[in-house]
UniProtKB/TrEMBL annotation:
It comes from the Bacteria. The keyword Signal does not apply. It is found in: Cell membrane. It is an enzyme of class 2 (transferase). It is a multi-pass membrane protein. This is histidine kinase. It comes from Thermoactinomyces daqus. PANTHER family: HISTIDINE KINASE, SENSOR HISTIDINE KINASE CPXA. Residues 189-241 form the HAMP domain. The chain crosses the membrane at residues 21-42, 164-187.
Length: 478
C-alpha cells in the first residue's frame, strides 16, 4: 500500500515540470539549512556584573556636599535615604576609624580606613558566569567641620544578570543563500539542458534540418514538447519530400507530355499535310489518311482528358462525394457494361463474387472510373485471346477485389513503378500507351483510404485492391 502510494507520487512528479521544480526548491532549502547549521549556531550566554568602585565613588561624590551643608541632626536622615535608594550601606567615619554616623542597615562601629583601602585594592569587580556573593567597597575623603572625614559605602550583591547571544547571523544568511543557489543549479541543470536542446533543435529545424530528432527523456512537459517537435520535424520532412516529389513529377509531367503529345500531333499534321499537298491522291487514299489522322486525334483527346482528370483528383481541394454503396453490385454493373468489349477482344470473363455485398462509403463515380481504367488496361496490355478474372471477398474489414488478365512478362522493377505517372509495362511507350490510367487508379484508391498492388505470376497480371467496408447490417440500397 505504502509502496503504491509513493510510486503514484513519483509518477505524478515525473509527469509535472512544475512539481519537479517545487521539489528542487524544497531539496535546495533542506540542503542549505543543513549546510548553514554550523554557521547558524547562536549561543545564549549569561553574565553576572557587579558594581565597580568608580560607580560607588560617583555616588559618594554626590552625597558629600549634602552632608557638608546639612546640620548634624540631618546627616543620619540623608544617609538612610540614600542608602535605601541605592541599596547600599553608608558610614561617616573619622580619621581614627570611629563610625560617627551610619545608615540604618549598617552595624559597624569602628572601621580602619587603611584596611578599607586594602580591601578595595583586592576586591574583584570582574563579571562572572555564575552568581557570586560580593561586597564592593568605596571610600571618599572630604572635609567636614574643618577636619578630614571619610564617607564609606559598600554594596552587597550576587551580581546583575545580563543575557546576550553569541554568533554571526549575517554569515548564516550568506551561507544559506549560496548553498541554496548551488544545489538548485545542480538539480535543475539537466532540465535546463533539455530546454536548451529543444530550443536549439527548433532553431535547427527552422533552418531546414528536418532530419534532426530530439531526445524524449522523461514524461514531463519538456519530453512532451520534444515529442511534438520531433513529430513536427517528421511532418515537415514528409511535406518537404512531398513537395520535392511533386516538383519532380511536374518536371516529369512536362517532359512526358511533350513527348507523348508530340508523336500523335506530328502524325496528325503529317497526314493532313499529305492530304493537303498531294492533289493526285485517290478518294480511297484520302479517306485512309483522314481516318488515321482522326484516330490519332482521338488518342490525343483521350490523353488530354486523362491528364485533366489526374490533375483534378490530385488537387489539394478535391473532395470525393462519399455515399454508401455495394462494391459487388457496382462491379457486376461494370462487367455487364464491358462484356461486349471484352468478348470483342477475345477475353473470356470469369467472375467469383462473394455473398457479402461489400458495402463501403465511397464515391461511385470515382470507383467506376477506377475499374474502367483497370479494364481498359487489361484490354490494351493483355494477351489475346486470354482471360479476364475478377474475384471479390471480405477480409479483415476490407473489401478485396482482384482483377487478373493474361499478360506478357513485365520487368519486376517496372511492376513496382506501374502506378507512377507515365510508367507502363511496355518500354516502347507508343502513343496509345500514356501510362496515366494506373496513376489515376492509385490516386482514387488513396482517396478511399485503400491499398493497391500489382502481382505477376503464372502468366497473369493481377491488381489487388483493398477498400474499407462497413458492417453488412447497416447496408441500405441507395
Amino acid at each position: 500500500m505504502i509502496r503504491r502510494f509513493f510510486e503514484k507520487i513519483y509518477h505524478k512528479i515525473a509527469a509535472s515540470l512544475r512539481a519537479q521544480f517545487i521539489l528542487y526548491i524544497l531539496i535546495s532549502m533542506l540542503a542549505a539549512a543543513i549546510a548553514v547549521e554550523p554557521f547558524a549556531y547562536i549561543n545564549q550566554e549569561k553574565r553576572y556584573y557587579y558594581p565597580s568602585r568608580d560607580e560607588l565613588e560617583m555616588e559618594l561624590k554626590k552625597i558629600t556636599p549634602l552632608i557638608q551643608q546639612a546640620p548634624p541632626r540631618q546627616i543620619r536622615f540623608i544617609l538612610d535615604e540614600k542608602a535605601e535608594a541605592s541599596g547600599t550601606k553608608l558610614r561617616l567615619i573619622s580619621q581614627k576609624g570611629t563610625v560617627l554616623v551610619r545608615s540604618a542597615n549598617a552595624t559597624e562601629q569602628q572601621m580602619n580606613p587603611a584596611q578599607i583601602l586594602m580591601k578595595i585594592s583586592q576586591q574583584n569587580e570582574e563579571p562572572s558566569n555564575v552568581p557570586q556573593f560580593r561586597e564592593i567597597y568605596a571610600i571618599h575623603p572630604f572635609y567636614f567641620h574643618h577636619q578630614i572625614h571619610y564617607l564609606v559605602i559598600s554594596k552587597e550583591t550576587h551580581g546583575r544578570l545580563t543575557t546576550y547571544w553569541i554568533g554571526n547571523p549575517l554569515l548564516s544568511v550568506v551561507v544559506f543563500f549560496l548553498v541554496f543557489i548551488v544545489v538548485y543549479l545542480i538539480l535543475t541543470r539537466r532540465k535546463l539542458k533539455q530546454l536548451q536542446e529543444v530550443t536549439a533543435g527548433i532553431s535547427e529545424i527552422a533552418k531546414g534540418n528536418f532530419r534532426l530528432r530530439l531526445k524524449e527523456q522523461g514524461k514531463d512537459e519538456i519530453a512532451f514538447l520534444a515529442a511534438h517537435v520531433n513529430e513536427m520535424a517528421r511532418q515537415l520532412k514528409a511535406n518537404w519530400e512531398k513537395e520535392r516529389r511533386m516538383e519532380q513529377e511536374r518536371t516529369d509531367l512536362i517532359t512526358s507530355i511533350s513527348h507523348d503529345l508530340r508523336t500523335p500531333l506530328t502524325s496528325v499534321i503529317g497526314y493532313l499535310k499529305l492530304i493537303h499537298d498531294q492533289s493526285q491522291l485517290t478518294p480511297d487514299e484520302m479517306k485512309k489518311y483522314a481516318d488515321i489522322a482522326l484516330s490519332k486525334s482521338k488518342n490525343l483527346k483521350q490523353m488530354m482528358d486523362q491528364l485533366f482528370e489526374f490533375t483534378k483528383i490530385t488537387h489539394d481541394q478535391f473532395q470525393p462525394s462519399f455515399q454508401l454503396i455495394s462494391l459487388n453490385e457496382l462491379i457486376n454493373q461494370l462487367l455487364e457494361g464491358n462484356h461486349a468489349m471484352l468478348a470483342l477482344n477475345e477475353m473470356d470473363v470469369e467472375r467469383i463474387i462473394c455473398n457479402d455485398p461489400l458495402q463501403a462509403q465511397a464515391d461511385p463515380f470515382l470507383l467506376i472510373r477506377m475499374f474502367d481504367n483497370l479494364i481498359q488496361n487489361a484490354l490494351k496490355y493483355g494477351k489475346k485471346p486470354g482471360k479476364f478474372i475478377i474475384v471479390t471477398k471480405q477480409e479483415d474489414g476490407y473489401g478485396v477485389i482482384k482483377l487478373s488478365n493474361t499478360a506478357g512478362q513485365v520487368d519486376r522493377q517496372i511492376i513496382g513503378r506501374l502506378f507512377q505517372m507515365f510508367v507502363t509495362g511496355d518500354p516502347s511507350r507508343s502513343e496509345k500507351r500514356s501510362g496515366i490510367g494506373l496513376a489515376i487508379v492509385k490516386r482514387i484508391v488513396d482517396l478511399h483510404q485503400g491499398q493497391i498492388a500489382a502481382i505477376q505470376e503464372n502468366g497473369m497480371m493481377t491488381f489487388v485492391i483493398k477498400l474499407p467496408i462497413t458492417s453488412s447490417r447497416s447496408f441500405t440500397r441507395r
